[in-house]
Amino acid sequence: MRPALLLIDLQYDYLHQPGLDPPSHTLVRHVADLLGACRQGTIPVAYAITLVQPDGSNRMPHWRRRDYWACVEGTEGVKMPPDIAPQQGEEVFPKPFFSAFANVELLAQLKRWHVDTLILGGVHAHGCIRATVLDAYQAGFEVWVAEEAVGSYDPVHARISRDYLDGRACRWLSLAAIRARLGATKSTANGGGVSRACGPLPVSFIEGEWQAAMDHRLQPRHDPTDWPHCLAVVPTATEADVSAATSATARCQRDWARLPLDRRAAYLESWAAALQRRRDNAIALIVSDLGKPVVDAIAEFDYGLALLSATIRSTRGDASATPAAGIAVHHRPVGTVGIITPWNNPLALPVGKIAPALLWGNAVVWKPAMQAPRLTMLLIEALTEAGFPSGCVSMVFGDATTGQAMLGERAITALSFTGSIAAGRQVALGCARYGKALQAELGGNNAAVIGPDCDVVEAAGELAAAAFSFAGQRCTAPRRLIVHAAVEKRFLDALDEALDHLLVGMPREASTRIGPVVCRAARQRISHIVAEAEKQGITIHRGGEVPKGYEDGCWYAPTVLTGASQNAPVVQQESFGPVVVVQRYDEAGQAISMVNGVEQGLVATLYSHDPEMKRRFGDSVEAGILRINAGQQGIHPEAPFGGWKASGIGLPEHGPWDRTFYTRPQAIYGDNPV
User: Fold this and answer.
1) What is the C-alpha separation between 300 and 293, in angstroms, rounded?
2) Interval 357-399: pLDDT, tens
């Protein structure tokens, strides 16, 4: 094998495009990892870049039609980040169109290097990567695409391109698999190889047994308060692991579904008791693994148990409403359910999905996020102690690749997912392809409107706590504060005073309200968002830096931005961190237009006592959850929880909507067999 690495279009104009998935800082980090492995193995490296002449004469036709300009020779946008820029001896091949092979010198150079295997990274997976793969395949090369080192601003079409190309014109391989094939000895990500000092955790839980990791790809989890400290090493499940978990769970589901509803509810009561006995340990793990302040960790545990109790109470309703004489309606379980949960609420969200799935007769294959693996194990241990039948719940640790493997499992008939919009759209594509029901909560970019007649000090205090507790890492946190011009200065002063009293500190301390973000990559992403906003003329009213004395962890100071236009990226995209944007409005219609003027629609809040404003807000705002002079209390475990527009797909969670999702109604005419 004689490999070469080809990196495509890793230029600032492309890396700074809105909606790039993964975000530019993550993509650059993975590309640097790939570059390090290739340079370590003295593998030739080449770059293909888009280079537009200053007069624009070589722009692609669709760019000319749109009067679009990018990657113009002599501008900053044509350059690459220093971490992944070419070194001496690494050649650069300009191109005007999609495929890197549009520059005929590239193929000639690869032949001079006697290359037979081409490794690709860069952007965009749905465009230039796709075109280059097809041309490389036609030229006779074995082609590997480094899955973590390619990005796209159109993740749905990127996934379609991957599904089409993989196994035909190329192999889509993880960085770990490529390093192994190249014989590289370490990863350059996170400053070196994966530490095994903690020892790898099990890779899965199947039929009541923990399955040991073998040759699995490993991911270290670091302490967000002391980043060099490794908390755990988590293996990534393979397609074979997912298949084994799904098969075992599907076998269990048939017997589980035959149990009476009250018996299944009794198991859930045992699970609640087992979790209560682990209360202190669970709270400590949420604090240590995520850096969530202890007051918020306690609130999450209590909310998780409230969700479990609400699920049990739902059995008291009529389980088989009868529409007419001689017709019965039975609610049958959908079967084996896939559940994918995020890291920011590692106890409450899994409990809120797993409990109703089990109650209504399903079995569960669960893929948690990897940031809190020890808490995942605690939840599984509590399920085991509760006496659930072996195989009723299987768990696989993993990443996006593991989630995609779940979608391909025929036995999984429905999927409940919480995560980002980009990831959710890829999941939706897979569910459509394989005919699976989907319930998805995809985050929010939530707005709060502060009217001129409200108690500004009270509103500022409530919003400061809601926006910045747990460093803003909640899908329900307000991100956009839309303030009437008449009270804008008073509101900013009150917000400053409220933030002065929200203590930044160690999450284990009861007085701490603002802890670290979850990891260094998150801090880097947030820092990049703020830096880009400042470049666009947006004012950093406060924050925008790492707090002094907290450099060794993952803290980022509570940041307030002002002066942003409605179409600014920091307004349009969810920051998911300790950042809020204060915007000004003059009249009610403008405020409502600003609330609705983003693609998300999860939570919207109004502080105003004006009857007309309240009416218009309730009638016109496009969000699944409205708060009107209701403060910032938590989400009720029996109320519908779901977003509108890009924030949600399918039915909401909780209350009677759980049974609607986790069962299929069946009408029976004549004799009722039950």
Assistant:
1) 11
2) 999 999 999 999 999 999 999 999 999 999 999 999 999 999 9
* One-letter-per-residue 3-state SS of 275-289: HHHCHHHHHHHHHHH
Contacts 24+ apart (CB under 8 A), 177-183: 177/217, 178/34, 178/37, 178/119, 178/144, 178/146, 179/37, 181/1, 181/144, 182/3, 182/37, 182/38, 182/41, 182/43, 183/41
CA dihedral sign of residues 282, 283, 287, 292: positive
Q: Read off the pLDDT of residues 198-229 as tens digits, 9 standing for 90 and up.
A: 578 999 999 999 999 988 888 889 999 999 89
Domain span at 114: 3-189
C-alpha span between 499 and 493 (Å, rounded): 10
Closest of 639, 657, 640, 597 to residue 622, by C-alpha: 597
Whole-model pTM: value is 0.86
Q: How many Å apart are CA 26 and CA 20, to the nearest integer?
A: 10
The answer on 452 and 436 residing in a single domain is no
> How far is the first Cα of the chain from the last one, in angstroms, to the nearest whole number?
65
Instruction: Please tell me the total count of domains within the chain.
Output: 3
- Residues 394, 471, single domain; the answer is no
Residues 437 and 501 in one domain: no
Question: CA 608 → CA 182, 465, 479, 628, distances in Å?
Answer: 63, 19, 19, 8
On whether residue 232 sits in a domain, the answer given is no
